[in-house]
Amino acid sequence: MFELNKNFNLLDEQLAESGLEMQWVGAVLGGVSALASIAGGISGAKEADKANKAQKVAYEKQKNAAAEQARNTNIYNRRKFETDRDNYRKQAQYNFDTAVKSWQYQTAIRALQEKTDAEKYLLNTKNSNQQLTFNEIAASQGLTREQLAIQDSRTEYALNRQDVLVSQLQAEGKSRLGQAGRSMNKRVQSDLAQLGRDIAVMDASLTGQIRASTLNMFDIQLGKYSADAKVEAARMLRPQQLPDIPAPTMPPEPAWMEPMAAQPGYVAPPTPQSTSAPLIAGIGQAAGTLASIDWNVKKTAQEQYDPTKNLGIGASIFGNG
User: Fold this and answer.
1) Do residues 191 and 168 touch, judged by C-beta distance below 8 A?
2) Running DSSP on this structure, what letter comes out for residue 305?
3) Residues 42, 280: contact at Cβ < 8 Å?
4) Per-residue model confidence as pLDDT tens digits over 191-206
5) Is residue 163 in a domain?
6) Least confident window among 110-114, 133-137, 170-174, 239-243
7) Distance between CA 131 and CA 235 in Å, rounded?
8) What are the pLDDT digits (tens) for 56-95?
9) Does residue 89 form part of some domain?
10) Could you tell me which of 217, 211, 209 has the C-alpha nearest to residue 155?
């Protein structure tokens, strides 16, 4: 009885020790797995924190870049505004100076034109007056010639008439010195008739010459009137003072609108990763692993290798008594 009981106790101890070792190995492995889960959670938390820091750095860089771009845009807009304003003022001043020079030139041309017109008018007036004087002198000379011609005709007529009368008296005297009677009277009457015809011819000639001279004097007066009319038609009008040329004026300064300030573009903030979630998950996984380990190793081994359970023999057979 004693030996059998002793053998069965030895087997029980060996089996218990073997189960104990297996349970302890499982417990150790479970602990290692739990530690690995916690370490993984810590590593995940660190990675999340690292990612959050990198996102924050990138976010700050993007905000700085947007602010820098807005600052550069504002500097450019300000410089462009000032440059456009300065260019406008320079162009306006240049245009005004050019207009002043043109106005001065046109004013000088206007003064020269007025002087030239006045000189032309004076010269034209002088020439017109001289031409009228020439017309007057020419007409006077023509009239004088015609009057002298009439006077000469009358003088010649008087002399010729006197010569005819003298010749007729001489012829009549000769006739009377001749034979008296009817033939003498006929010769006297014939001489008197001839004298009348000669005087009538001379009268007619004088009248014709006077009429011709009178017509000539009329033509002379008409020619003078026509010549004077041409002179007056060609006479220049008295020049008037030209209107003043408007002086240039500087254009009004336009209203300048300041450029609108550019604002930095919106940069969406990053969504941070949870640093506690991996740690909580690792701790939870480790807790689950540890919870699944049977920490009552010896008791479990004894119950697993109990001879009374394995052999179906009552506990009293293998008992210590």
Assistant:
1) yes
2) T
3) no
4) 666 777 777 887 888 8
5) yes
6) 170-174
7) 11
8) 888 888 888 888 888 899 999 999 999 999 999 999 999 9
9) yes
10) 209
What local confidence, expressed as pLDDT, does residue 229 receive? 92
Instruction: Identify whether 259 is part of a domain.
Output: no
**Would the pLDDT of 129 be above 80?**
yes
Query: Residue 153: what residue type?
Result: S
Per the structure, the complete domain to which residue 158 belongs is given by 22-243+288-306
Domain assignment present for 271? no
Average pLDDT of the chain, as a whole number: 75
One-letter-per-residue 3-state SS of the chain: CHHHHHHHHHHHHHHHHHHHHHHHHHHHHHHHHHHHHHHHHHHHHHHHHHHHHHHHHHHHHHHHHHHHHHHHHHHHHHHHHHHHHHHHHHHHHHHHHHHHHHHHHHHHHHHHHHHHHHHHHHHHHHHHHHHHHHHHHHHHHHHHHHHHHHHHHHHHHHHHHHHHHHHHHHHHHHHHHCCCCHHHHHHHHHHHHHHHHHHHHHHHHHHHHHHHHHHHHHHHHHHHHHHHHHHHHHCCCCCCCCCCCCCCCCCCCCCCCCCCCCCCCCCCCCCCCCCHHHHHHHHHHHHHHHHCCCCCHHHHHHHHCCHHHHHCCCCCCCCCC
The total number of structural domains in the chain stands at: 1
Cα–Cα distance list, 283 to 41, 63, 169, 275 (Å): 7, 37, 190, 13
What pTM value is reported for the model?
Answer: 0.49
Both tokens of 122, joined, read 């004076």
Judged by average pLDDT, the poorest of 3-12, 62-71, 206-215 is 3-12
